[in-house]
Amino acid sequence: MSLLEVQGLAVHYGGIRAVKGIDLQVEEGEVVCLIGANGAGKTTTLRALAGLLPAASGSIRYAGSEVTDLPVHARARIGISLVPEGRGVFPRLTVAENLDMGAYSRRDRAEISADLEHVYGLFPRLYERRSQTGGTLSGGEQQMLSLGRALMSRPRLLLLDEPSMGLAPLAVQKIFETIRLIAAAGMTLLLVEQNARLALESSRRGYVLEGGCIVHQDDAAALLASPRVRAAYLGA
Amino acid sequence: MDVLLQQLINGLILGSLYALVALGYTMVYGILELINFAHGEIVMVGAMVSVSVLAALTAAGVPVALALPLALAAAVVVCVVTGVLVERVAYRPLRNAPRLAPLITAIGVSIVLQNLAMIFWGRQYLSFPPVIEVQVYDVLGATVSNVQILIFVVAALTMGGLLLLVNRTRLGRAMRATAQNREVAGLMGVDVNRVIAATFIVGSALAAVAGLLIASYYGIAHYNMGFILGLKAFSAAVLGGIGNIPGALLGGLLLGVIESLGAGYIGDLTGGFLGSHYQDIFAFLILILVLTFRPSGLLGERVADRA
Ligand SMILES: Nc1ncnc2c1ncn2[C@@H]1O[C@H](COP(=O)(O)OP(=O)(O)OP(=O)(O)O)[C@@H](O)[C@H]1O
Ligand SMILES: [Mg+2]
Protein backbone atom coordinates (compact mmCIF):
# COMPACT_ATOMS: atom_id res chain seq x y z
CA MET A 1 0.00 0.00 0.00
CA SER A 2 1.32 3.43 -0.94
CA LEU A 3 1.61 6.23 1.61
CA LEU A 4 -0.32 8.52 -0.73
CA GLU A 5 -2.90 7.29 -3.22
CA VAL A 6 -4.76 9.81 -5.32
CA GLN A 7 -7.57 8.69 -7.59
CA GLY A 8 -9.48 10.81 -10.06
CA LEU A 9 -8.72 14.03 -8.20
CA ALA A 10 -10.39 17.07 -9.77
CA VAL A 11 -10.08 20.63 -8.42
CA HIS A 12 -12.08 23.60 -9.66
CA TYR A 13 -11.95 27.36 -9.11
CA GLY A 14 -15.57 28.29 -9.66
CA GLY A 15 -16.11 27.31 -13.27
CA ILE A 16 -12.40 26.88 -14.04
CA ARG A 17 -11.31 23.25 -14.04
CA ALA A 18 -7.66 23.45 -12.98
CA VAL A 19 -7.05 19.76 -12.20
CA LYS A 20 -9.08 17.29 -14.21
CA GLY A 21 -9.10 13.90 -12.56
CA ILE A 22 -5.54 12.81 -11.88
CA ASP A 23 -4.18 9.57 -10.39
CA LEU A 24 -0.89 9.43 -8.57
CA GLN A 25 0.85 7.38 -5.89
CA VAL A 26 3.79 8.00 -3.63
CA GLU A 27 5.37 5.11 -1.75
CA GLU A 28 6.74 5.50 1.77
CA GLY A 29 10.33 6.78 1.57
CA GLU A 30 10.07 7.66 -2.10
CA VAL A 31 10.91 10.97 -3.80
CA VAL A 32 8.49 11.79 -6.59
CA CYS A 33 8.31 14.95 -8.65
CA LEU A 34 5.51 16.65 -10.49
CA ILE A 35 6.67 18.79 -13.40
CA GLY A 36 4.78 20.94 -15.87
CA ALA A 37 4.56 24.33 -17.48
CA ASN A 38 3.11 27.47 -15.84
CA GLY A 39 -0.55 26.99 -15.14
CA ALA A 40 -0.45 23.21 -15.55
CA GLY A 41 -2.07 22.73 -12.14
CA LYS A 42 0.92 21.75 -9.98
CA THR A 43 0.23 24.19 -7.14
CA THR A 44 -3.46 23.42 -7.30
CA THR A 45 -2.71 19.71 -6.88
CA LEU A 46 -0.45 20.22 -3.85
CA ARG A 47 -2.90 22.62 -2.22
CA ALA A 48 -5.69 20.10 -2.63
CA LEU A 49 -3.49 17.36 -1.11
CA ALA A 50 -2.75 19.60 1.89
CA GLY A 51 -6.43 20.49 2.32
CA LEU A 52 -6.24 24.15 1.35
CA LEU A 53 -8.54 23.52 -1.62
CA PRO A 54 -11.53 21.16 -1.68
CA ALA A 55 -11.60 18.26 -4.14
CA ALA A 56 -14.43 18.61 -6.66
CA SER A 57 -14.29 14.85 -7.10
CA GLY A 58 -11.95 11.91 -6.60
CA SER A 59 -10.28 10.58 -3.50
CA ILE A 60 -7.11 11.14 -1.52
CA ARG A 61 -5.96 8.26 0.66
CA TYR A 62 -3.07 8.75 3.05
CA ALA A 63 -1.51 6.02 5.19
CA GLY A 64 -4.47 3.80 4.42
CA SER A 65 -7.26 6.19 5.33
CA GLU A 66 -9.47 8.53 3.39
CA VAL A 67 -8.47 12.17 4.01
CA THR A 68 -10.35 13.84 1.15
CA ASP A 69 -12.70 15.68 3.49
CA LEU A 70 -10.33 16.38 6.38
CA PRO A 71 -9.70 20.10 7.06
CA VAL A 72 -6.19 21.43 6.56
CA HIS A 73 -5.17 21.47 10.24
CA ALA A 74 -6.26 17.86 10.71
CA ARG A 75 -4.13 16.77 7.75
CA ALA A 76 -1.16 18.67 9.17
CA ARG A 77 -1.61 16.83 12.45
CA ILE A 78 -1.36 13.41 10.81
CA GLY A 79 1.89 14.28 9.08
CA ILE A 80 1.04 15.92 5.75
CA SER A 81 3.16 19.05 5.47
CA LEU A 82 3.17 21.57 2.62
CA VAL A 83 5.96 24.06 2.02
CA PRO A 84 3.84 26.48 0.02
CA GLU A 85 4.70 28.36 -3.13
CA GLY A 86 6.07 31.75 -2.02
CA ARG A 87 7.22 30.23 1.31
CA GLY A 88 4.54 31.61 3.64
CA VAL A 89 6.93 32.75 6.36
CA PHE A 90 5.17 34.59 9.22
CA PRO A 91 6.60 38.06 8.67
CA ARG A 92 6.28 39.41 12.22
CA LEU A 93 7.27 36.27 14.11
CA THR A 94 10.95 35.71 14.74
CA VAL A 95 12.83 32.89 13.03
CA ALA A 96 12.71 30.92 16.28
CA GLU A 97 8.95 31.52 16.65
CA ASN A 98 8.37 30.51 13.02
CA LEU A 99 10.19 27.23 13.67
CA ASP A 100 8.22 26.80 16.87
CA MET A 101 4.99 27.14 14.88
CA GLY A 102 6.16 24.17 12.81
CA ALA A 103 6.01 22.08 15.97
CA TYR A 104 2.60 23.51 16.94
CA SER A 105 0.80 20.15 16.94
CA ARG A 106 3.51 18.35 18.90
CA ARG A 107 3.75 18.00 22.68
CA ASP A 108 7.05 16.11 23.03
CA ARG A 109 9.17 19.02 24.28
CA ALA A 110 12.48 17.18 24.49
CA GLU A 111 12.15 15.82 20.98
CA ILE A 112 11.16 19.24 19.69
CA SER A 113 14.32 20.84 20.99
CA ALA A 114 16.38 18.01 19.48
CA ASP A 115 14.70 18.66 16.12
CA LEU A 116 15.35 22.36 16.50
CA GLU A 117 19.07 21.63 16.93
CA HIS A 118 18.89 19.46 13.83
CA VAL A 119 17.25 22.21 11.75
CA TYR A 120 19.78 24.78 12.97
CA GLY A 121 22.47 22.24 12.03
CA LEU A 122 21.06 21.98 8.50
CA PHE A 123 20.77 25.76 8.21
CA PRO A 124 23.33 27.54 10.43
CA ARG A 125 22.16 30.78 8.83
CA LEU A 126 18.80 30.37 10.57
CA TYR A 127 20.53 29.99 13.90
CA GLU A 128 22.40 33.26 13.36
CA ARG A 129 19.12 34.96 12.47
CA ARG A 130 16.97 33.28 15.14
CA SER A 131 15.78 36.46 16.83
CA GLN A 132 15.18 38.38 13.61
CA THR A 133 11.62 38.58 12.24
CA GLY A 134 10.74 36.40 9.26
CA GLY A 135 9.87 39.37 7.08
CA THR A 136 13.43 40.70 7.26
CA LEU A 137 15.05 37.55 5.81
CA SER A 138 16.30 37.26 2.23
CA GLY A 139 14.44 35.04 -0.21
CA GLY A 140 16.89 32.18 0.21
CA GLU A 141 16.76 32.43 4.00
CA GLN A 142 12.96 32.46 3.91
CA GLN A 143 13.01 29.28 1.84
CA MET A 144 15.32 27.66 4.40
CA LEU A 145 12.98 28.81 7.16
CA SER A 146 9.92 27.47 5.40
CA LEU A 147 11.59 24.11 4.84
CA GLY A 148 13.00 24.01 8.37
CA ARG A 149 9.58 24.89 9.79
CA ALA A 150 8.01 22.03 7.87
CA LEU A 151 10.65 19.63 9.24
CA MET A 152 9.79 20.77 12.77
CA SER A 153 6.40 19.08 12.38
CA ARG A 154 8.15 15.71 11.79
CA PRO A 155 6.12 15.18 8.62
CA ARG A 156 5.53 11.76 7.13
CA LEU A 157 4.75 13.24 3.72
CA LEU A 158 6.47 16.46 2.69
CA LEU A 159 4.97 18.42 -0.20
CA LEU A 160 7.34 21.01 -1.68
CA ASP A 161 6.03 23.67 -4.07
CA GLU A 162 8.79 25.25 -6.19
CA PRO A 163 11.53 25.46 -3.57
CA SER A 164 13.86 27.00 -6.18
CA MET A 165 11.53 29.82 -7.19
CA GLY A 166 13.15 33.24 -7.23
CA LEU A 167 16.44 32.07 -5.73
CA ALA A 168 19.99 32.71 -6.92
CA PRO A 169 21.82 29.61 -8.28
CA LEU A 170 23.88 29.23 -5.13
CA ALA A 171 20.78 29.31 -2.92
CA VAL A 172 19.06 26.78 -5.20
CA GLN A 173 22.04 24.48 -4.82
CA LYS A 174 21.95 24.81 -1.05
CA ILE A 175 18.22 24.07 -0.87
CA PHE A 176 18.47 21.04 -3.13
CA GLU A 177 21.46 19.72 -1.23
CA THR A 178 19.30 19.81 1.87
CA ILE A 179 16.35 18.23 0.09
CA ARG A 180 18.56 15.33 -1.01
CA LEU A 181 19.85 15.00 2.54
CA ILE A 182 16.32 14.84 3.90
CA ALA A 183 15.36 12.31 1.24
CA ALA A 184 18.41 10.18 1.99
CA ALA A 185 17.30 10.09 5.63
CA GLY A 186 14.10 8.38 4.45
CA MET A 187 11.56 11.21 4.14
CA THR A 188 8.73 10.77 1.64
CA LEU A 189 8.69 13.72 -0.75
CA LEU A 190 6.40 15.02 -3.46
CA LEU A 191 8.27 17.79 -5.22
CA VAL A 192 6.84 20.35 -7.62
CA GLU A 193 9.30 22.27 -9.77
CA GLN A 194 9.56 24.51 -12.80
CA ASN A 195 13.17 23.49 -12.97
CA ALA A 196 12.42 20.04 -14.37
CA ARG A 197 15.99 18.87 -14.70
CA LEU A 198 16.82 19.60 -11.08
CA ALA A 199 13.58 17.99 -9.95
CA LEU A 200 14.07 14.81 -11.99
CA GLU A 201 17.69 14.51 -10.93
CA SER A 202 16.58 14.57 -7.30
CA SER A 203 13.68 12.11 -7.69
CA ARG A 204 13.09 8.44 -8.30
CA ARG A 205 9.89 8.86 -10.33
CA GLY A 206 8.12 11.75 -12.00
CA TYR A 207 4.73 12.79 -13.31
CA VAL A 208 4.23 15.30 -16.11
CA LEU A 209 1.19 17.53 -15.75
CA GLU A 210 -0.28 19.36 -18.74
CA GLY A 211 -3.49 21.40 -18.66
CA GLY A 212 -4.65 19.70 -15.47
CA CYS A 213 -4.04 16.13 -16.73
CA ILE A 214 -1.16 13.75 -16.14
CA VAL A 215 0.24 13.03 -19.59
CA HIS A 216 3.35 11.07 -18.63
CA GLN A 217 4.71 9.11 -15.74
CA ASP A 218 7.88 7.11 -15.47
CA ASP A 219 11.13 6.63 -13.63
CA ALA A 220 13.00 9.90 -13.36
CA ALA A 221 15.87 8.55 -15.44
CA ALA A 222 13.49 7.51 -18.23
CA LEU A 223 11.79 10.92 -18.22
CA LEU A 224 15.17 12.63 -18.37
CA ALA A 225 15.96 10.55 -21.44
CA SER A 226 12.55 10.90 -23.12
CA PRO A 227 12.72 13.03 -26.29
CA ARG A 228 9.28 14.50 -25.63
CA VAL A 229 10.10 15.54 -22.09
CA ARG A 230 13.50 16.83 -23.18
CA ALA A 231 11.94 18.96 -25.90
CA ALA A 232 9.13 20.34 -23.76
CA TYR A 233 10.72 20.75 -20.31
CA LEU A 234 14.47 20.38 -20.44
CA GLY A 235 15.20 22.81 -23.25
CA ALA A 236 17.12 20.16 -25.19
CA MET B 1 -5.82 72.89 42.66
CA ASP B 2 -3.52 71.98 39.81
CA VAL B 3 -5.79 71.78 36.76
CA LEU B 4 -3.21 70.31 34.40
CA LEU B 5 -2.23 67.48 36.74
CA GLN B 6 -5.86 66.84 37.59
CA GLN B 7 -6.80 66.53 33.91
CA LEU B 8 -3.82 64.24 33.29
CA ILE B 9 -4.89 61.91 36.09
CA ASN B 10 -8.51 61.90 34.91
CA GLY B 11 -7.30 61.35 31.36
CA LEU B 12 -5.16 58.35 32.22
CA ILE B 13 -8.01 56.68 34.10
CA LEU B 14 -10.52 57.33 31.33
CA GLY B 15 -7.85 56.31 28.82
CA SER B 16 -7.26 52.96 30.50
CA LEU B 17 -10.96 52.24 29.91
CA TYR B 18 -10.76 53.27 26.25
CA ALA B 19 -7.67 51.09 25.89
CA LEU B 20 -9.49 48.07 27.29
CA VAL B 21 -12.28 48.49 24.74
CA ALA B 22 -9.89 49.39 21.91
CA LEU B 23 -8.09 46.07 22.44
CA GLY B 24 -11.24 44.21 21.46
CA TYR B 25 -11.48 46.12 18.18
CA THR B 26 -7.84 45.67 17.38
CA MET B 27 -7.66 41.95 18.15
CA VAL B 28 -10.59 41.11 15.91
CA TYR B 29 -9.30 43.42 13.20
CA GLY B 30 -5.84 41.89 13.43
CA ILE B 31 -7.16 38.41 12.81
CA LEU B 32 -10.13 38.97 10.47
CA GLU B 33 -9.56 42.46 9.05
CA LEU B 34 -13.09 43.10 10.25
CA ILE B 35 -14.17 46.20 12.15
CA ASN B 36 -16.47 44.61 14.69
CA PHE B 37 -18.78 47.55 15.25
CA ALA B 38 -20.83 45.43 17.64
CA HIS B 39 -17.98 45.44 20.16
CA GLY B 40 -19.22 48.65 21.82
CA GLU B 41 -22.55 46.90 22.36
CA ILE B 42 -20.79 43.97 24.03
CA VAL B 43 -19.31 46.47 26.48
CA MET B 44 -22.81 47.86 27.05
CA VAL B 45 -24.09 44.34 27.75
CA GLY B 46 -21.23 43.90 30.24
CA ALA B 47 -22.17 47.14 31.97
CA MET B 48 -25.90 46.34 32.12
CA VAL B 49 -25.38 42.80 33.38
CA SER B 50 -22.85 43.75 36.02
CA VAL B 51 -24.94 46.65 37.32
CA SER B 52 -28.13 44.54 37.48
CA VAL B 53 -26.40 41.61 39.18
CA LEU B 54 -24.57 43.85 41.60
CA ALA B 55 -27.79 45.68 42.50
CA ALA B 56 -29.66 42.40 43.02
CA LEU B 57 -26.89 40.87 45.13
CA THR B 58 -26.31 43.87 47.36
CA ALA B 59 -30.07 44.24 47.83
CA ALA B 60 -30.10 40.63 48.99
CA GLY B 61 -27.42 41.49 51.53
CA VAL B 62 -24.46 39.78 49.84
CA PRO B 63 -21.24 41.46 51.00
CA VAL B 64 -19.50 43.68 48.43
CA ALA B 65 -16.30 41.65 48.44
CA LEU B 66 -18.34 38.76 47.07
CA ALA B 67 -20.91 40.67 45.06
CA LEU B 68 -18.39 42.52 42.89
CA PRO B 69 -16.53 39.42 41.65
CA LEU B 70 -19.86 37.65 41.09
CA ALA B 71 -21.19 40.58 39.07
CA LEU B 72 -18.00 40.59 37.01
CA ALA B 73 -18.21 36.83 36.45
CA ALA B 74 -21.82 37.14 35.30
CA ALA B 75 -20.86 39.93 32.90
CA VAL B 76 -17.97 37.87 31.51
CA VAL B 77 -20.20 34.86 30.91
CA VAL B 78 -22.95 36.84 29.19
CA CYS B 79 -20.50 38.87 27.08
CA VAL B 80 -18.51 35.81 26.01
CA VAL B 81 -21.64 33.92 25.02
CA THR B 82 -22.91 36.94 23.10
CA GLY B 83 -19.55 37.50 21.38
CA VAL B 84 -19.18 33.89 20.33
CA LEU B 85 -22.76 33.74 19.06
CA VAL B 86 -22.26 36.91 17.03
CA GLU B 87 -19.10 35.48 15.44
CA ARG B 88 -20.71 32.13 14.70
CA VAL B 89 -24.03 33.41 13.39
CA ALA B 90 -23.21 36.75 11.79
CA TYR B 91 -19.54 36.80 10.78
CA ARG B 92 -18.40 33.24 10.05
CA PRO B 93 -20.84 32.68 7.17
CA LEU B 94 -19.38 35.83 5.57
CA ARG B 95 -15.72 34.87 6.07
CA ASN B 96 -15.06 34.86 2.32
CA ALA B 97 -17.58 37.50 1.29
CA PRO B 98 -16.56 40.95 0.01
CA ARG B 99 -15.40 43.11 2.92
CA LEU B 100 -18.39 45.42 2.91
CA ALA B 101 -20.77 42.56 3.78
CA PRO B 102 -19.42 41.74 7.27
CA LEU B 103 -19.02 45.45 7.99
CA ILE B 104 -22.69 46.14 7.29
CA THR B 105 -23.59 43.00 9.23
CA ALA B 106 -21.58 44.32 12.20
CA ILE B 107 -23.63 47.52 12.19
CA GLY B 108 -26.79 45.41 12.01
CA VAL B 109 -25.68 43.25 14.94
CA SER B 110 -25.01 46.37 16.92
CA ILE B 111 -28.54 47.66 16.32
CA VAL B 112 -30.02 44.29 17.23
CA LEU B 113 -28.06 44.13 20.51
CA GLN B 114 -29.08 47.67 21.43
CA ASN B 115 -32.73 46.88 20.85
CA LEU B 116 -32.56 43.61 22.76
CA ALA B 117 -31.00 45.49 25.67
CA MET B 118 -33.71 48.13 25.50
CA ILE B 119 -36.43 45.48 25.54
CA PHE B 120 -34.79 43.61 28.39
CA TRP B 121 -33.72 46.51 30.64
CA GLY B 122 -35.96 49.31 29.44
CA ARG B 123 -35.02 52.86 28.50
CA GLN B 124 -34.14 54.12 31.95
CA TYR B 125 -30.62 54.55 33.28
CA LEU B 126 -29.46 51.85 35.67
CA SER B 127 -27.41 53.35 38.46
CA PHE B 128 -24.33 51.66 39.78
CA PRO B 129 -24.99 50.78 43.44
CA PRO B 130 -22.77 52.81 45.83
CA VAL B 131 -20.97 49.69 47.04
CA ILE B 132 -17.64 51.33 47.74
CA GLU B 133 -17.34 54.24 50.10
CA VAL B 134 -15.53 56.90 48.10
CA GLN B 135 -12.38 58.29 49.62
CA VAL B 136 -10.51 61.11 48.00
CA TYR B 137 -6.76 61.51 48.25
CA ASP B 138 -4.69 64.57 47.56
CA VAL B 139 -1.82 64.16 45.08
CA LEU B 140 0.35 67.26 44.57
CA GLY B 141 -2.67 69.51 44.53
CA ALA B 142 -4.84 67.22 42.44
CA THR B 143 -7.33 64.68 43.75
CA VAL B 144 -7.82 61.03 43.03
CA SER B 145 -10.34 58.67 44.58
CA ASN B 146 -10.00 55.07 45.70
CA VAL B 147 -12.55 54.06 43.05
CA GLN B 148 -10.49 55.70 40.32
CA ILE B 149 -7.38 53.92 41.55
CA LEU B 150 -9.23 50.62 41.63
CA ILE B 151 -10.49 51.16 38.08
CA PHE B 152 -7.01 51.92 36.83
CA VAL B 153 -5.43 48.96 38.62
CA VAL B 154 -8.02 46.47 37.35
CA ALA B 155 -7.70 47.82 33.79
CA ALA B 156 -3.90 47.63 33.95
CA LEU B 157 -3.90 44.09 35.35
CA THR B 158 -6.36 42.94 32.68
CA MET B 159 -4.24 44.42 29.91
CA GLY B 160 -1.09 42.90 31.39
CA GLY B 161 -2.80 39.53 31.40
CA LEU B 162 -3.75 39.97 27.77
CA LEU B 163 -0.18 40.80 26.79
CA LEU B 164 1.04 37.66 28.55
CA LEU B 165 -1.62 35.59 26.80
CA VAL B 166 -0.75 36.93 23.36
CA ASN B 167 3.04 36.88 23.71
CA ARG B 168 3.73 33.98 26.01
CA THR B 169 1.20 31.23 25.41
CA ARG B 170 0.59 28.65 22.72
CA LEU B 171 -2.85 30.12 22.02
CA GLY B 172 -1.30 33.58 21.74
CA ARG B 173 1.25 32.34 19.25
CA ALA B 174 -1.50 30.69 17.24
CA MET B 175 -3.42 33.99 17.29
CA ARG B 176 -0.45 35.97 16.02
CA ALA B 177 0.31 33.38 13.35
CA THR B 178 -3.33 33.31 12.23
CA ALA B 179 -3.37 37.11 12.04
CA GLN B 180 -0.26 37.10 9.85
CA ASN B 181 -1.16 34.27 7.50
CA ARG B 182 -4.32 32.31 8.08
CA GLU B 183 -3.61 29.67 5.43
CA VAL B 184 -0.13 28.88 6.66
CA ALA B 185 -1.35 28.77 10.26
CA GLY B 186 -3.72 26.03 9.10
CA LEU B 187 -0.79 24.21 7.48
CA MET B 188 0.96 24.27 10.87
CA GLY B 189 -1.99 22.41 12.39
CA VAL B 190 -3.75 25.43 13.88
CA ASP B 191 -7.53 25.05 13.88
CA VAL B 192 -8.16 28.54 12.57
CA ASN B 193 -11.88 28.57 13.38
CA ARG B 194 -11.13 27.81 17.01
CA VAL B 195 -8.47 30.51 17.18
CA ILE B 196 -10.91 33.05 15.74
CA ALA B 197 -13.56 31.96 18.25
CA ALA B 198 -10.95 32.27 21.02
CA THR B 199 -10.19 35.81 19.87
CA PHE B 200 -13.85 36.73 20.23
CA ILE B 201 -13.94 35.06 23.66
CA VAL B 202 -10.95 37.05 24.87
CA GLY B 203 -12.19 40.31 23.33
CA SER B 204 -15.63 39.84 24.89
CA ALA B 205 -14.17 39.06 28.30
CA LEU B 206 -12.18 42.30 28.09
CA ALA B 207 -15.42 44.06 27.11
CA ALA B 208 -17.12 42.64 30.20
CA VAL B 209 -14.39 43.98 32.48
CA ALA B 210 -14.55 47.32 30.66
CA GLY B 211 -18.35 47.39 31.00
CA LEU B 212 -18.22 46.98 34.74
CA LEU B 213 -15.45 49.54 35.16
CA ILE B 214 -17.13 52.08 32.89
CA ALA B 215 -20.43 51.72 34.72
CA SER B 216 -18.66 52.36 38.01
CA TYR B 217 -16.71 55.28 36.49
CA TYR B 218 -19.81 57.10 35.29
CA GLY B 219 -22.08 55.65 37.98
CA ILE B 220 -24.66 54.59 35.38
CA ALA B 221 -25.35 52.14 32.57
CA HIS B 222 -27.75 52.57 29.68
CA TYR B 223 -28.79 50.49 26.65
CA ASN B 224 -27.46 53.26 24.42
CA MET B 225 -24.02 53.69 25.97
CA GLY B 226 -22.17 51.32 23.64
CA PHE B 227 -22.50 53.40 20.51
CA ILE B 228 -20.42 56.51 21.28
CA LEU B 229 -18.11 54.49 23.49
CA GLY B 230 -17.50 52.02 20.67
CA LEU B 231 -16.76 54.80 18.20
CA LYS B 232 -14.32 56.38 20.62
CA ALA B 233 -12.51 53.14 21.35
CA PHE B 234 -12.38 52.43 17.64
CA SER B 235 -10.81 55.88 17.14
CA ALA B 236 -8.28 55.03 19.84
CA ALA B 237 -7.44 51.75 18.07
CA VAL B 238 -6.99 53.59 14.77
CA LEU B 239 -4.85 56.22 16.50
CA GLY B 240 -2.50 53.52 17.80
CA GLY B 241 -2.58 51.51 14.56
CA ILE B 242 -5.50 49.14 14.10
CA GLY B 243 -4.49 45.52 14.47
CA ASN B 244 -1.60 46.43 16.76
CA ILE B 245 -2.03 45.52 20.44
CA PRO B 246 0.48 47.94 22.02
CA GLY B 247 -1.04 50.52 19.65
CA ALA B 248 -4.48 50.02 21.19
CA LEU B 249 -3.03 50.59 24.67
CA LEU B 250 -1.21 53.72 23.59
CA GLY B 251 -4.13 55.03 21.53
CA GLY B 252 -6.58 54.49 24.39
CA LEU B 253 -4.43 56.27 26.96
CA LEU B 254 -3.68 59.14 24.57
CA LEU B 255 -7.32 59.59 23.67
CA GLY B 256 -8.26 59.69 27.34
CA VAL B 257 -5.64 62.33 28.09
CA ILE B 258 -6.45 64.41 25.01
CA GLU B 259 -10.15 64.32 25.79
CA SER B 260 -9.63 65.20 29.38
CA LEU B 261 -7.20 68.05 28.69
CA GLY B 262 -9.44 69.22 25.87
CA ALA B 263 -12.48 69.24 28.13
CA GLY B 264 -10.54 71.23 30.70
CA TYR B 265 -9.43 73.87 28.27
CA ILE B 266 -12.02 73.89 25.50
CA GLY B 267 -13.85 76.78 27.14
CA ASP B 268 -10.71 78.93 27.17
CA LEU B 269 -9.77 77.82 23.66
CA THR B 270 -13.09 78.87 22.15
CA GLY B 271 -13.60 81.92 24.31
CA GLY B 272 -16.41 80.19 26.17
CA PHE B 273 -18.26 79.31 22.97
CA LEU B 274 -17.98 75.55 23.56
CA GLY B 275 -18.29 73.99 27.01
CA SER B 276 -16.69 70.84 28.40
CA HIS B 277 -19.67 68.73 27.30
CA TYR B 278 -18.22 69.04 23.80
CA GLN B 279 -15.35 66.75 24.79
CA ASP B 280 -16.72 63.99 22.54
CA ILE B 281 -15.57 65.86 19.45
CA PHE B 282 -11.91 65.16 20.19
CA ALA B 283 -12.14 61.46 19.42
CA PHE B 284 -13.64 62.17 16.04
CA LEU B 285 -11.22 64.98 15.27
CA ILE B 286 -8.41 62.55 16.00
CA LEU B 287 -10.02 59.86 13.87
CA ILE B 288 -10.28 62.23 10.91
CA LEU B 289 -6.73 63.56 11.35
CA VAL B 290 -5.18 60.09 11.67
CA LEU B 291 -7.09 58.68 8.73
CA THR B 292 -6.03 61.65 6.64
CA PHE B 293 -2.38 61.97 7.60
CA ARG B 294 -1.28 58.63 8.99
CA PRO B 295 -3.79 55.87 8.25
CA SER B 296 -1.48 53.19 9.66
CA GLY B 297 -1.65 54.91 13.08
CA LEU B 298 1.16 55.64 15.50
CA LEU B 299 2.51 52.09 15.84
CA GLY B 300 0.96 50.48 12.74
CA GLU B 301 3.30 48.77 10.32
CA ARG B 302 3.65 49.79 6.76
CA VAL B 303 1.02 48.08 4.64
CA ALA B 304 3.69 45.99 2.91
CA ASP B 305 4.39 44.09 6.14
CA ARG B 306 0.87 42.85 6.35
CA ALA B 307 1.29 40.27 3.55
N1 LIG C 1 -7.40 31.34 -7.28
C1 LIG C 1 -7.60 31.00 -8.57
N2 LIG C 1 -8.74 31.35 -9.20
C2 LIG C 1 -8.95 31.00 -10.49
N3 LIG C 1 -8.09 30.30 -11.22
C3 LIG C 1 -6.94 29.90 -10.67
C4 LIG C 1 -6.64 30.24 -9.30
N4 LIG C 1 -5.43 29.73 -9.00
C5 LIG C 1 -5.00 29.11 -10.12
N5 LIG C 1 -5.91 29.21 -11.11
C6 LIG C 1 -5.79 28.64 -12.46
O1 LIG C 1 -5.61 27.25 -12.35
C7 LIG C 1 -4.65 26.79 -13.26
C8 LIG C 1 -3.57 26.03 -12.53
O2 LIG C 1 -2.86 26.92 -11.69
P1 LIG C 1 -1.67 26.46 -10.75
O3 LIG C 1 -1.32 27.59 -9.89
O4 LIG C 1 -2.04 25.18 -10.13
O5 LIG C 1 -0.50 26.22 -11.81
P2 LIG C 1 1.00 25.80 -11.58
O6 LIG C 1 1.22 24.56 -12.36
O7 LIG C 1 1.34 25.77 -10.16
O8 LIG C 1 1.77 27.00 -12.29
P3 LIG C 1 3.13 27.76 -11.92
O9 LIG C 1 4.22 26.92 -12.45
O10 LIG C 1 3.03 29.06 -12.65
O11 LIG C 1 3.17 27.92 -10.45
C9 LIG C 1 -4.15 28.00 -14.01
O12 LIG C 1 -4.82 28.07 -15.23
C10 LIG C 1 -4.54 29.15 -13.12
O13 LIG C 1 -4.83 30.30 -13.90
MG1 LIG D 1 2.61 26.88 -8.97
What's the arrangement of secondary structure elements?
The complex is a heterodimer of chains A (236) and B (307).
Chain A: E1 4-13, E2 16-26, E3 31-36, H1 42-50, E4 57-62, E5 65-66, H2 72-77, E6 80-83, H3 95-102, H4 109-122, H5 124-128, H6 139-151, E7 157-161, H7 169-184, E8 188-193, H8 196-201, E9 205-210, E10 213-219, H9 220-225, H10 227-233
Helix pairs in contact in A: 3-6
Chain B: H1 3-32, H2 39-59, H3 64-91, H4 100-121, E1 126-127, E2 136-139, E3 142-145, H5 146-168, H6 170-180, H7 182-187, H8 192-218, E4 220-221, H9 225-240, H10 245-269, H11 281-293
Antiparallel strand pairs in B: 1-4, 2-3
Helix pairs in contact in B: 1-5, 1-8, 1-9, 1-10, 2-3, 2-4, 2-8, 2-9, 3-8, 5-6, 5-8, 6-8, 9-10, 9-11, 10-11
The complex binds adenosine-5'-triphosphate and magnesium ion.
List keywords for this structure.
heterodimer, A: 236 residues, alpha/beta, Rossmann fold, six-stranded mixed beta sheet, four-stranded antiparallel beta sheet, globular, B: 307 residues, mainly alpha, ABC transporter involved in vitamin B12 uptake, BtuC, two-stranded antiparallel ribbon, 4 strands, 72% helix, binds adenosine-5'-triphosphate, binds magnesium ion
Structure, described:
The complex is a heterodimer of chains A (236) and B (307). Chain A has one domain: P-loop containing nucleotide triphosphate hydrolases (Rossmann fold, 3-Layer(aba) Sandwich), CATH 3.40.50. Chain A has 10 helices and 10 strands. Chain A has helices at 42-50, 72-77, 95-102, 109-122, 124-128, 139-151, 169-184, 196-201, 220-225, 227-233; strands at residues 4-13, 16-26, 31-36, 57-62, 65-66, 80-83, 157-161, 188-193, 205-210, 213-219. In chain A, the strands form 2 sheets. Chain A has a 6-stranded mixed beta sheet with strand order 6-7-8-3-9-10, with helices on both faces. In chain A, strands 2-1-4-5 form a 4-stranded antiparallel beta sheet, covered by helices on one side. In chain A, a hairpin with a 2-residue loop joins β9 and β10. The radius of gyration of chain A is 17 Å and the shape is globular. In chain A, 44% of the residues are buried. By secondary structure, chain B is mainly alpha-helical. Chain B has a single domain, classed as ABC transporter involved in vitamin B12 uptake, BtuC. Chain B has a two-stranded antiparallel sheet with strand order 1-4. The radius of gyration of chain B is 19 Å and the shape is globular. Chains A and B meet through α2 and α3 of A and α6 and α7 of B. Magnesium ion binds next to α1 of chain A. Magnesium ion is lined by residues 42-43, 85, 162 of chain A.
